[in-house]
């Protein structure tokens, strides 16, 4: 079967191969455009995130996918579940707002994981409060456990490369008109 696909690609020649590569490029570009549109609509740099730890159990478990929004000029309230990223931090953190203070110019927040014994001050990297510029979004919905695929791809890079390679080969070898 694989040799027949190679023979078919040889018949297509350079023009056919370029056409297949353009198809692959259009799929990737379409995905990126949809992601950017979703970022604009939700006003969030990352409108979809995966829970990576158990710090928010029982509200959210590892592998849950969260959907975020970050509306302009809507203050956060105690009890809101936020996703934030502190300067120098690699991974966004999903925790609940436990204190909120509004100053003349900005809102200051203190967060805590539901499953953690204390607040997040140690996670803030020397800051005393989170400011709105640190917040990626407020959780608006979730899908349980669907994010385990993302966790597996991050924990096992070989799986990620095999999957990407398989998709690339599939797109290159798909028949025209199908």
From TrEMBL:
It is an enzyme of class 3 (hydrolase). CDD domains: S26_SPase_I (cd06530). It is a single-pass type II membrane protein. One of its GO terms (cellular component) is signal peptidase complex. Its EC number is 3.4.21.89. One of its GO terms (biological process) is signal peptide processing. Keywords: Endoplasmic reticulum, Hydrolase, Membrane, Protease, Signal-anchor, Transmembrane, Transmembrane helix. It is found in: Endoplasmic reticulum membrane. It comes from the Eukaryota. Its main location: endoplasmic reticulum. The chain crosses the membrane at residues 12-35. SUPFAM superfamilies: LexA/Signal peptidase (SSF51306). InterPro entries: LexA/Signal_pep-like_sf, Pept_S26A_signal_pept_1_Ser-AS, Peptidase_S26, Peptidase_S26B. It catalyses: Cleavage of hydrophobic, N-terminal signal or leader sequences from secreted and periplasmic proteins. GO terms for molecular function: serine-type endopeptidase activity; signal peptidase activity. Component of the signal peptidase complex (SPC) composed of a catalytic subunit SEC11 and three accessory subunits SPC1, SPC2 and SPC3. The complex induces a local thinning of the ER membrane which is used to measure the length of the signal peptide (SP) h-region of protein substrates. This ensures the selectivity of the complex towards h-regions shorter than 18-20 amino acids. SPC associates with the translocon complex. Belongs to the peptidase S26B family. Catalytic component of the signal peptidase complex (SPC) which catalyzes the cleavage of N-terminal signal sequences from nascent proteins as they are translocated into the lumen of the endoplasmic reticulum. Specifically cleaves N-terminal signal peptides that contain a hydrophobic alpha-helix (h-region) shorter than 18-20 amino acids. This is Signal peptidase complex catalytic subunit SEC11. It comes from Tremella mesenterica (Jelly fungus).
């Amino acid at each position: 079967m694989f040799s027949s696909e190679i023979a078919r690609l040889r018949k297509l020649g350079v023009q056919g191969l370029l056409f297949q590569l353009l198809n692959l490029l259009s799929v990737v570009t379409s995905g990126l455009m949809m992601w950017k549109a979703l970022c604009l609509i939700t006003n969030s740099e990352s409108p979809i995130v995966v829970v990576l730890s158990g710090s928010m159990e029982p509200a959210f478990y590892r592998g849950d996918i969260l959907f975020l929004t970050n509306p302009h000029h809507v203050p956060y309230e105690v009890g809101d579940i936020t996703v934030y990223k502190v300067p120098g931090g690699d991974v966004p953190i999903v925790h609940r707002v436990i204190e909120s203070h509004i100053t003349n110019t900005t809102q200051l927040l203190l967060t805590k994981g539901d499953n953690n014994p204390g607040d997040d001050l140690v996670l803030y990297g020397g800051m005393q409060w989170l400011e709105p510029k640190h917040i990626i979004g407020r959780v608006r919905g979730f899908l349980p456990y669907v994010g385990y695929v993302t966790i597996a791809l991050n924990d096992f890079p070989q799986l990620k490369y095999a999957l990407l390679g398989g998709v690339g080969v599939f797109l290159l070898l798909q028949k025209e008109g199908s």
